[in-house]
Design a protein that fits this description.
By secondary structure, this protein is mainly β. 0% of the residues lie in helices and 52% in strands. It contains no helices and 12 strands. The protein has a 6-stranded mixed beta sheet, with no helix packed on it. Strands 1-3-8-7 form a 4-stranded antiparallel beta sheet, with no helix packed on it. The protein has a two-stranded antiparallel ribbon with strand order 10-11.
């Protein structure tokens, strides 16, 4: 059973950058699609980005051009590079492993990390 641990969150000013990591243990993630989600206070969890086992990606429209998802299978880790951050990006960010990936959609599985807080000040 894969276990996921997110890290890299923090407090940053608007326009700044953060690089989140999702480190997996217990099972190699090379065959899995991986997704990033976020949940702001009082809001539902929403999809942010996903990467297939072959490296194809898709993104939430509002983060396209600012966020980049990538994977390093040798390190069993997936990254989310976030640039030009906005206050509305403030949320707890979660990674998810093994969901269903398509070019336009990612359906999450029941395998989640504990989340990492991202706070963007104006």
């Amino acid at each position: 059973q894969v276990q996921l641990v997110e890290s890299g969150g923090g407090l940053v000013q608007a326009g700044g950058s953060l690089n989140l990591s999702c480190a997996a243990s217990g099972s190699p993630i090379s065959i899995n699609a991986i997704g990033w989600y976020r949940q702001a206070p009082g809001k539902q969890r929403e999809f942010v980005a996903a990467i297939s086992s072959r490296g194809s990606t898709n993104y939430l429209d509002s983060v396209k051009g600012r966020f980049t998802i990538s994977r390093d299978n040798a390190k069993n880790t997936v990254y989310l590079q976030m640039n030009s951050l906005k206050p509305e990006d403030t949320a707890v960010y979660y990674c998810n492993a093994g969901g269903y990936y398509s070019s336009t959609h990612y359906s999450y599985s029941d395998r989640w990390g504990q989340g990492t807080q991202v706070t963007v000040s104006s």
